Automatic annotation (TrEMBL):
Cited InterPro entries: Prot-tyrosine_phosphatase-like, Protein-Tyr_Phosphatase, PTP_cat
Name of this protein: Tyrosine-protein phosphatase domain-containing protein
Gene3D superfamilies: Protein tyrosine phosphatase superfamily
Biased composition range(s): Polar residues: 1-23, 71-94
Source organism of the structure: Caenorhabditis japonica
Compositionally biased intervals (Basic residues): 96-105
Domain Tyrosine-protein phosphatase: 156-382
Region (Disordered): 1-44, 67-105
One annotated GO molecular function: protein tyrosine phosphatase activity
Length: 398
C-alpha cells in the first residue's frame, strides 16, 4: 500500500494540468485506484462482496476453496474430481521465464469466479462425504435423518460419492454384453460380466449362452432373484422361456403393462391357450384378474428324445404401474404379499424372475458414476455396498 500511495503522489507532481490542482479533494482522487473495466475484476468484486455477508461456517468453506487443497481428514473423503486432477507435473521442464508465465496464468485461472465457484462446490461435497454415517442408523433417529437430507440435498450427494468410491471397476465390466447388441432389448443397458445369467449353448450357436439378465442377492441367500428386461421381439420369447426353464424358476413377477399410452411396453410373451416355443410348450391353465394385478398359472412342458418334463409356473402381473410414475402402494403391497405367500408354500432352489420395461430398480453404472437409475445405466450390480442397496430394495418389494 505504501508503494501504491508513493507512486500516486509522484504522478501527482509529475503530471501538470487540471488534475494537479492544489485542491485537497482532487489530490485524494489521485490517491485512489481507478476501477478497472475488466469484467473479471468486476465479477471478483461482486463475489467477494457476497462473501462479506456470509456466516463463519460459510467463510470456512471459502477458505478451503481458496486453499485449493482437500479439507483436513482422511483421504477417503477427497472428492473424486479433485483426486483425478492430482496427477503430478507431467509437462517437460521449461525455462524460468516460461515457468513464471505458467504460474501467473494458473493463478489467474484459479481466481476466476467460475473456478472459484467450482472449488467451493467441491469443498461442500467433501463436507457432505464426511457426514455419511459409518454405522447403522437407529430406528428412532431414521425419520430425523431423512428429514435432514430432504432439507439439505447435498448430503445425498455425499452418500452418492462415497458409494461410487467403493465400486470396484473390475466388477463392473460388461465386455460380453457390449458385443451382443442384437440380443439386448435396450442396447444402452447391458449386464455385468460378474453376475450375468449364462445359458447352455444350443444349436451350435456360439452366442446362445447370452441373455440380458442378472442375478441379484438377497439378505438370506445368493442369487435369490433374476432381473431382466421386457420381451420386445418374437425371438426373445423363446429365449425368455428357455431361461425360465434352465433356471428352474416357478415364479415370474411382471412390473409393467403390455400397452401404456398407446406404446408397446412389453410383448405378450405368454399364450392365451397354448403355444410351442422351440422345445418348450407353454399352456395357460388359469387366469385370475384383480383390480390392480393379474395372476396366471402356466404349465410348461419340455419334450426331448429321452423324456417329457412338466412344471407349473406362477405369473404375477402388476398392471397399475404407469409410465414415469409411482405405483399404487396399497396394491403393490398386496401383490408382494401374494408373491411371498406363494413362494413360502412352493419353495424351490431357484431364483425368482422379475422384469419390467427395463431394469429400473437394480441398475448401477459404475463406469459413468451413476447410482441406481437405469436410463443411463450400463449394468445391474456393482460392488458389495451397491449389492446391499439392491438386496434391501428387492427384499422390501418382493
Amino acid at each position: 500500500m505504501k508503494s501504491l500511495f508513493t507512486s500516486g503522489a509522484r504522478n501527482a507532481h509529475q503530471q501538470p494540468g487540471p488534475s494537479s490542482s492544489t485542491d485537497p479533494d482532487s489530490r485524494m482522487d489521485l490517491l485512489t485506484v481507478p476501477e478497472s473495466p475488466s469484467s473479471r475484476r468486476r465479477e471478483l468484486s461482486n463475489v467477494f462482496n457476497d462473501f462479506r455477508r456470509k456466516s463463519i461456517s460459510e467463510l470456512s468453506l471459502v477458505m478451503d476453496a481458496l486453499r485449493g487443497s482437500p479439507s483436513p481428514g482422511s483421504s477417503q473423503y477427497i472428492h473424486p474430481e479433485r483426486a483425478s486432477q492430482s496427477t503430478g507435473n507431467l509437462n517437460p521442464p521449461q525455462s524460468k521465464k516460461g515457468r513464471r508465465r505458467r504460474k501467473v496464468q494458473k493463478t489467474w485461472a484459479a481466481m476466476s469466479p467460475g473456478n472459484f465457484s467450482k472449488q467451493l462446490q467441491l469443498v461442500q461435497e467433501e463436507k457432505a462425504m464426511q457426514a455419511v454415517p459409518t454405522a447403522p442408523i437407529d430406528a428412532s433417529k431414521f425419520v430425523a435423518y431423512v428429514q435432514e437430507r430432504r432439507k439439505k440435498r447435498i448430503l445425498f450427494k455425499g452418500e452418492y460419492l462415497m458409494i461410487n468410491r467403493s465400486i470396484d471397476n473390475n466388477k463392473c465390466r460388461c465386455d460380453v454384453g457390449s458385443t451382443m447388441m442384437d440380443r439386448n432389448p435396450y442396447p444402452d443397458t447391458v449386464p455385468y460380466d460378474l453376475n450375468r445369467v449364462t445359458l447352455p449353448r444350443i444349436d451350435g450357436d456360439e452366442n446362445s449362452h447370452y441373455i440380458n439378465a442378472s442375478y441379484v442377492n438377497s439378505w438370506l441367500r445368493d442369487k435369490a432373484y433374476v432381473v431382466t428386461q421386457a420381451v420386445r421381439t418374437k425371438p426373445m420369447n423363446a429365449e425368455f422361456w428357455r431361461m425360465v426353464w434352465e433356471l428352474g424358476s416357478n415364479c415370474i413377477v411382471m412390473l409393467t403393462k403390455v400397452f401404456d399410452f398407446m406404446r408397446v411396453m412389453c410383448l405378450q410373451y405368454w399364450p392365451l391357450t397354448k403355444f410351442q416355443f422351440r422345445e418348450i410348450e407353454v399352456e395357460t391353465t388359469e387366469v385370475k384378474t384383480y383390480s390392480h394385478f393379474v395372476i396366471r398359472t402356466f404349465k410348461l412342458t419340455r419334450t426331448t428324445s429321452e423324456s417329457i418334463e412338466t412344471r407349473i409356473v406362477k405369473h404375477f402381473h402388476f398392471t397399475e404401474w404407469e409410465l414415469d410414475s409411482f405405483p399404487y402402494i396399497s396394491a403393490f403391497i398386496e401383490l408382494r404379499r401374494r408373491v411371498r405367500q406363494f413362494m413360502e408354500k412352493n419353495p424351490v432352489d431357484a431364483p425368482m424372475v422379475v422384469h419390467c420395461r427395463f431394469v429400473l430398480l437394480f441398475s448401477v453404472r459404475g463406469a459413468a458414476n451413476a447410482l441406481p437409475s437405469h436410463r443411463g445405466g450400463r449394468g445391474h450390480v456393482g460392488d458389495e455396498r451397491v449389492q446391499n442397496i439392491e438386496r434391501a430394495v428387492a427384499d422390501v418389494l418382493l
